[in-house]
Amino acid sequence: MAQPLKVSVVWHGLPAYAARLIRSVAHDPSIDLKVFSTVPPEDPRDLEEIIGRRVHWIDERNARESAEGDDAAVCFVTGWAFKACRQFASVVKARERPVVAMIDNRWRGDVRQRLGSIYFRMRLRDTIDYAWVPGASATRLCRSLGLPSRAVVDGLYGGDGTFFMPPPSDDRPPRIGFVGQLIRRKGFDVLVDAFKQFHQGSPEYELHAYGAGELEPLAAGVPGIVLHPFAKPYVIAEAMKNFRVFVMPSRDDNWPLALHEAALSGCPLVATREVGNAVELMDGANGIVIPSGSSEALTAALRTVAAWPAGRRRAAALTSRRLAESFGPERWRREFLRLCAAATAGRVSQAEATLPN
Predict the structure, then answer these.
(1) DSSP E strands: which ranges in 66-212?
(2) What is the pTM of this model?
(3) Does domain 175-324 fall into CATH 3.40.50.2000?
(4) Matching CATH number, 5-158+327-353, of 3.40.50.2000, 3.10.120.10, 1.10.357.10, 3.50.30.10
(5) What is the tens place of the pLDDT at every residue in 64-81?
């Protein structure tokens, strides 16, 4: 019987959704898994309970030493902007072991990104063997960085479809949902302005926003807006069952998990073109894609979706769920094992790299 392959996963600030993804391979008999992370915002004990095994906590002071004590044959590393993760990966590469970089940046095509591609080719290209990305936008970015298609695999992110689920009844209250930081990048200022205009004609609707941030005062005292603090995933999962519309008005967002979780929950969606996973999760039948920074466009989209009859909302819910089911723990497990096999074989064939989701 073959010995299990030793694999390490190094995740910066390990979030709960990542713990659920990692759990899909944590007890696979073909894998001897070790998980490393910098200190997360969540309770570390909760994350270890989700995964079902110990997590090794690292920082800039002990990352190199931790890597030197690890003998994994393949290493998956995220958080490339953070020193501890780079230190860990550098030790792995010095041993000539394959590194899979988990990269979620979306393609923007701006000057900063084009200049960054020069830096990547000169300084970082030789430090990774494969790129694991969320979807189409990040795939395009990695190709622009010089990575061949055979070395780029998508399916990196996804919520848990057994956790985020549609409600048993189609009768949702007139409620708009938002989950994320209350900051300009997330377009919260645009959302508040748009909701004020929308609420004048649809006073029965409420906007429930889960999060915190510097723009929170914009919503203070606005009729119909209900602010909630950041909440545990089970709270968000229950809240999403009551959203008749979920909105993601970001000016710049790579692959926001909240949009995927809302789609898993069967929500009709409104998102901007700058939301990286809109292309995977929206096809015109389940929501509206709008330009960022425009409260007028957002107001119009909210009015359109709010006017959908019950049958149209049910169809949108089915579409959201269907598109969202292409991502999540099952997909993550499949791609993880495929990348492990490819890395140890030293190649990913073109056919493998373009397998259907």
Answers:
(1) 74-77, 99-102, 130-132, 152-153, 175-179, 206-210
(2) 0.91
(3) yes
(4) 3.40.50.2000
(5) 999 999 999 999 999 777
